[in-house]
Amino acid sequence: MNAEHHDLGVSQVAAAIAEPARTRMLCALMDGHARTSTELASIAEVSASTASAHLAKLKQMALVRLHVQGRHRYYSLADPRVAQALEALMVIGQSATPTFTPRTPDRLQFARTCYDHMAGTLAVRLHDRMLEAGWLVGMEGEGYRLSESGEAVFEGLGVDVHHLATQRRRFACPCLDWSMRRPHLGGALGAALLQVALKRKWVIQDLDSRALGLTASGRREMAARFGISAEIDVKPTGAIASRLAPTMGLR
Fold first, then answer.
1. Which residue range or ranges hold the HTH arsR-type domain (predicted)?
2. Taking a C-beta distance cutoff of 8 angstroms, is the pair 81, 65 a contact?
3. Where are the beta strands (DSSP E) in 36-90?
4. What is the pLDDT of residues 218-244, one digit of tens each?
């Protein structure tokens, strides 16, 4: 594909996302759950026929995927890259104001899903702690790898890190958090960590939103296993900023 075709592809995708109703639909699907066109019409505050037209456009641009189960039709994001692109656009959108003040509801800002991994204040703090402890090691332009101690931590949680490394998706990478404007952990490793947290009931997911609630046992485990407090501030330190530079393109 030549440069002209690349430019055309970017502009077409951007135009598909840019319509406010379609943006609301895509953001609603970022929790990884599939939804019907009726549900998405309500979220986008449009009629059923208008919602169907919007979803057809999003499907045409490979931004959503249609799942048919008997008489039911559900829509989900096409793949994690769509969620990552939306998170990045949210960050850029916030940058239009001189002073950044998160407008995210408190519960969503503290902990939420970002497609299939964890986002928000708690996720950013976990990401920082893994870097500080040397469990995550940055590889320029290629995300992260686990150190020996990092492998031991995740294997202690029941995560088969070697199996994750064979998957077609990125193993571990920084995903820019739109409410904090700093990275949390994405990729297969980030998804595995969220599944551990859900399975062990460290966090509980809302049925009708992306919010994650931290349980009492979750608070204890965050302190015992990761050495962090759920209430701790998440301002980046110099060490964290320098470690992020190779993977986030920061200078």
1. 2-97
2. no
3. 64-69, 72-77
4. 999 999 999 987 555 455 555 555 555
Structure tokens at 65: 């995927």
Taking the domains of the chain in order of start, what are their residue ranges? 3-78, 81-248
The CA-CA-CA angle for residues 24, 30, 32, to 5°, reads 135
On the question of pLDDT at 142 being above 50, the answer is yes
The helix-helix angle for 37-44 and 48-60 (nearest 10°) equals: 100
On average, the pLDDT of the chain sits at 83
Residue whose pair of structure tokens reads 């980030």 in the numeric block: 190
Its CATH class, for the domain covering 3-78, is mainly alpha
